């Protein structure tokens, strides 16, 4: 099994991990329905499917 020749310092290790972070999801409130949903995603409110603040499908039922 391979072993490192020298110990990697905490600074070097942490430099490698600088991009390993979580970012919050982009959430927006709809002006039409007041529903909180993911940005650029369709959402269901009171049985209807909405996208860009307009009703797309009335009496929507999820397939999955």
Automatic annotation (TrEMBL):
Domain of life: Bacteria
GO BP, sorted A to Z: translation
GO cellular component: large ribosomal subunit
Biased composition annotated in UniProt, kind: Basic residues: 1-19
Tagged with keyword Magnesium: no
Annotated region described as Disordered, given as residue ranges: 1-23
Protein name: Large ribosomal subunit protein bL32
Organism encoding this protein: Adhaeribacter soli
